[in-house]
Design a protein that fits this description.
- The chain folds into two domains: about 5-90, Methionine synthase domain (Methyltransferase, Methionine Synthase (B12-binding Domains), Chain A, domain 1, Orthogonal Bundle); about 95-229, Cobalamin-binding domain (Rossmann fold, 3-Layer(aba) Sandwich), CATH 3.40.50.
- It has a five-stranded parallel sheet, sandwiched between helices.
- Helix 1 crosses helix 3, helix 1 crosses helix 4 and helix 2 (about 25-35) runs parallel beside helix 4.
- Helices cover about 65% and strands about 10% of the residues.
- The termini are far apart.
- By secondary structure, the protein is of the alpha/beta class.
């Protein structure tokens, strides 16, 4: 059993390795985590993913740009390749689900969306990435095709943000049980509520937590429906 102080040291070095885009550091400490029997899911979410959260903040503050983001992502995946095969299914089993994600029509910004996609990936979700500048009706079509519990919409401009409202209407008409999450610079919690969304992601890490909560709520409702039926 790894001590709390040692756990903190391992997580800190994993996080730092991602932020500094140091693949060797990430690989070394990922292996250390396994050798010292630290839970792989803990190492991924509180080490690697926590580092990527910091990277997202650095990008928002324009201290990091696209090349740095890509190198940080490489470091993160270097750690994932080592840790993920050892992830206990049950440690994330109750939160796994499917997500359709994309940046809405007219919007070609996708760094934020890619960060959130990565966080879903890390957390063990199956991600259906539609990319950027996605035709509005495509979200509803992909949700029906995959039967995903969550649709995550991203917009970085006020003009394209309005398309989100239309997507929500299209999806809810066809399948009222789908949870829809919004994110992006112009989106606020109030806007998300106004548009009829079920959740709002302030950051990449927050998106995963929000998704887990939404899936739990959906499953509760479904179970209740089954029990009543």
């Amino acid at each position: 059993m790894v001590s709390e102080a040692r756990r903190e040291e391992i997580l800190q070095n994993l996080s730092e390795g991602v932020v500094e885009y140091d693949e060797n550091q990430v690989k070394e400490w990922s292996q250390t985590a396994l050798d010292e029997t630290l839970d792989a899911y803990d190492a991924i979410m509180n080490g690697l993913a926590a580092g990527m959260e910091i990277v997202g903040d650095l990008y928002d503050r324009q201290e990091y740009f696209v090349p740095e983001i890509l190198m940080c992502a490489d470091a993160l995946y270097a750690g994932l390749n080592i840790l993920r095969p050892h992830m206990k299914i049950d440690s994330a089993g109750d939160v796994k689900g499917q997500v359709v994600i994309g940046t809405v029509q007219g919007d070609v910004h996708d760094i934020g969306k890619n960060l959130i996609k990565m966080m879903f990936d890390v957390a063990g979700f199956t991600v259906h990435d539609l990319g950027r500048d996605v035709p509005l009706e495509k979200f509803a079509e992909e949700q029906l095709r995959t039967d995903s519990e969550i649709v995550a919409l991203s917009a970085m401009m006020t003009t394209t943000m309005m398309g989100m409202k239309r997507v929500i209407q299209m999806i809810k008409e066809k399948n009222p049980n789908v949870a829809i999450m919004l994110g992006g610079a112009p989106v606020t919690k109030d806007v998300a509520s106004l548009f009829g969304a079920d959740g709002y992601a302030e950051s990449a890490g927050n998106a995963v937590q929000e998704a887990i909560k939404m899936i739990s709520r959906l499953r509760e409702l479904q179970n209740r429906g089954v029990a009543q039926g």
